[in-house]
Automatic annotation (TrEMBL):
Keywords: Methyltransferase, Transferase. Residues 48-278 form the DNA methylase adenine-specific domain. The lineage of its organism: Bacteria, Bacillati, Actinomycetota, Acidimicrobiia, Acidimicrobiales. It comes from the Bacteria. The keyword Transferase applies. InterPro entries: DNA_methylase_A-5, N4_N6_ade-DNA_methylase, SAM-dependent_MTases_sf. Signal peptide: none annotated. Coiled coil: none annotated. It catalyses: a 2'-deoxyadenosine in DNA + S-adenosyl-L-methionine = an N(6)-methyl-2'-deoxyadenosine in DNA + S-adenosyl-L-homocysteine + H(+). This is site-specific DNA-methyltransferase (adenine-specific). GO terms for molecular function: DNA binding; N-methyltransferase activity; site-specific DNA-methyltransferase (adenine-specific) activity.
Amino acid sequence: MSPLSAVATLAVHGRAPSELPSWCDVTDHLAGGAAAALDPPPGAAICDLLGPLYELMLADAVRRSAGVHFTSPALASGLVALAASIRVGERFRTGEVVLDPACGAGAFLVATARYLWAEAGTDGRSTSAGGILSRLVGADLDPDVLVVARAALARWALDEADAPGHDEAVGRARASGLSSDEPTLVCCDALTQPDVLARAIGGAPVGWVVGNPPFLAQLRAGTRHDARRRSSLTERFGAEVGAYTDTAALFLLAATELVADTGVVCLIQPRSVLAARDAAGVRQTVTKRMPLAAAWVGDGGFGAAVEVWAPVLGGFAAAPVGEVPVRGGSTVEMELGMVPVGALSSESWGALVAAAEGLPAVRRTSGTPLGRLGEVVRFSAGFRDEYYAMLELAQEATLTEREGRPEVPAGFAALVSSGLIDPGVCRWGGKSMRFGKRRWESPVVDLGALAADDAPTTAWAKRQLVPKVLVASQTRVIEAAPDGQGRAIGLTPVIAGVPKGITLGHLLAVLCSPLSTLSLVSAMAGSGMGRAGVRVSTRALGDLDLPVHQGPWDEAAGLLAGRCDLGDGIESATLTWVHELMVAASGVDDPDGVLSWFRER
């Protein structure tokens, strides 16, 4: 049986075909149903089951390539209510329509119909299910899924009219099959066929744009645009389209063009849109057009196997919004916190997810940062070629000791992996490491051999033979170790930071600061990676703020200045004092909260 035939059987007869799996496979919230259970679960609206049934019957590859992952009715209803709540004045105005530019099986359109029906009942206004349907506009590339959406909305109209007190309406609906007032559903690409979509809207003002557009990450072969579509998108959106901009972000951009001046936009997005470099243009443009008024942050469990969130743009309050409320939960029921608008920029909206994940909200109560770390430090890292160039030159060292710790032999440079770097210390020679599919005890390169090799890959290594700080690639907190004599080479993906306007102690103090880790975790939260650890990059380190107050920073640097040789350890008590000084230097309003969070990491 085809997916559409199964949907038709359920929509018309209220029962599933006998050859389908149990309803526990169709609806996520059910567990352990009998395989022969053909009737919908008690209390489940048939209109809410058509989309999941259709998705279930599609092949996995088809779902992934088309981004077919439908939204739960509860989440759609919660987001529609959130979007409506931030609109100033009348939430839905005469003559307006609601648009879902990638409507799929119609979950958001059904949720909108429910909301408008309930609002009409609350306000005592006279309306009909058909009248509400006529205010809904949906678009999708898949003509079959539009059939499912139309069936879901038709079934909603019958079921809502079947509520107590509407028997007469039910009789009319059943006698005629469906109301003559129907939604406008059009088969088109809302991104590259704006003229077709405009005709479907018909000149009506768009009060709301809601939905769950497809997530088509451009790093994945199965979801990547072909050359023709990429060209069409670039022609329409211009500089906002990067090589790896997710399609969902472009729907957000298009929505801000389509919505009325006082309207609202709420579209589910992958978390990558919060912080990805190729979505920066989208973030900048949409917030120029509409204020970010609220956000919902999901907590896993989404059908697309990605972490998601949804902005609510618009509302246009009389006074500028100073803080953005963040909601969570499968029905948008949880209040997770408030994020200052100043914490959001085109570089990253990761602070929204940081609030949802319990990260401290940083507010500076005095002064401004003295600059950016990248202004006084040069950060660099090797790539694949540099890694293998060092592997060809590597050899085991004959160790000597100085003051009870391993000493790099004269004429050699130590090779250091991320695993050897702990906060404030490099454990080369005291801890083994894996390199080139084997274990090494104390790997080095001969400086003479390195000097004789004029390849570009070794030129990178030679530039590391200066006083610097080595930073591990992915850890729970930033882990940085000093190399005050320039005796080590960090192996890919270790990052080297060479100070050019501050001392090594000042650099190490900034990297040891709890505020630096918090900043990176907040940014990584936006890309969905913050929970696993701090995934540093040269750009992310360069973007870190310098402290606000010079005095505590100088004091912290002084504590570290005498412990900057490779392998020097920093006592735990000293590191703790450095952490406290650097939080004090940052000028934040809740230093104890930041320190408590950092220590729990």
